[in-house]
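Practice set, problem 2.
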Amino acid sequence: MRNINFICCISAKHKSPEYKEVLRCIREDICDISDIWPNVSWNAPIEYQIEMGQNLETQIIILKNAFTVLDFVKIKTNLMDMEVKYSMNNNRLFNLNPGFIDGEGMFLITHKPNFERGRTFIGGGLWMEQQYIILNNQLSYCNNTFSEYLNKKRLKQFNKLFPKVILTAKKAETAIGASS
């Protein structure tokens, strides 16, 4: 099954020169970008507001290439390096989180172990955590959904992508069945 891969960018300054540089680095260091969704305002937890400022927004960057879960070890490392590179006074300007949608839901990749949240170790010091589950052939919120993904507009956008994952899986199953 082909995953739909994305990066969630959280920032207060999506129009800054640093943001354009982050997009350039994603294209050069990870892969080309197939789509960038409009910004959605986010009522961020206080720790994000202290570090990154108020009036934070999220933006989803859809990546062109398909990756395995293990590829995310390198991707997350690259993104964490970008966060450090584009920081001011030891505060990040951007929080960059890779993730993917597959036939089981939507997952984020993190370097923070938090076993109470049900994170699954994937290797290289990284864990994945489910943000949306599948109910009635659609993505839906789950108990652990982060606040930046509880936005109805954001869920609707991810649900528009979800049929592509299922269609790709069915094409692969048909191809395997035809070759048997």
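Problem 2, part (b): a different protein.
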Amino acid sequence: MKNRTYIALLSVGILVAASAYGSKKVPSLTLTEMTTVWIGLSVGEVYAYRIHLQSNGKGLVAITKKAQEPIVFPIADWDYSKGKIRIQGEPIGSKGKKRAPQLSGEVIGAAMTLIDRGKNWKIRVKLRRESEMLDWLGRLQQAMAPLENEK
């Protein structure tokens, strides 16, 4: 009986600790940490995005699709508060085909998830800070280089 009680209490303790650990809120990035270059792919990996958020509320959004030239949009304004972000691009293109990215979403930890919306479509995009991605890539390349050179 004592063993069962001990096991039951231990199980409850583990569950409580695990749920408390899992419910810890990741701190939001500061405005300064947001003001950088972000890169990422659409969920279907059809589109690549590069977003440069500048401290003056402006910036640039570049979007490309496989084998197509990137399109670069100026950012009219962007704002970020409590983990939520909104980016409004300036329209470019000819009269009948003007387009301006309207992105909104959230930032959890160092990852940003945005929805790019059009009239009858939306694209989900997952982004990370470019400097982090380049750092990761460099470390991976360094780690693999000795083994790749053995061939």
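Answer key, part (b): Residues 45 and 112 are 16 Å apart (CA to CA). Strands lie at 37-42, 47-53, 59-65, 71-81, 84-89, 102-108, 111-117, 122-129.
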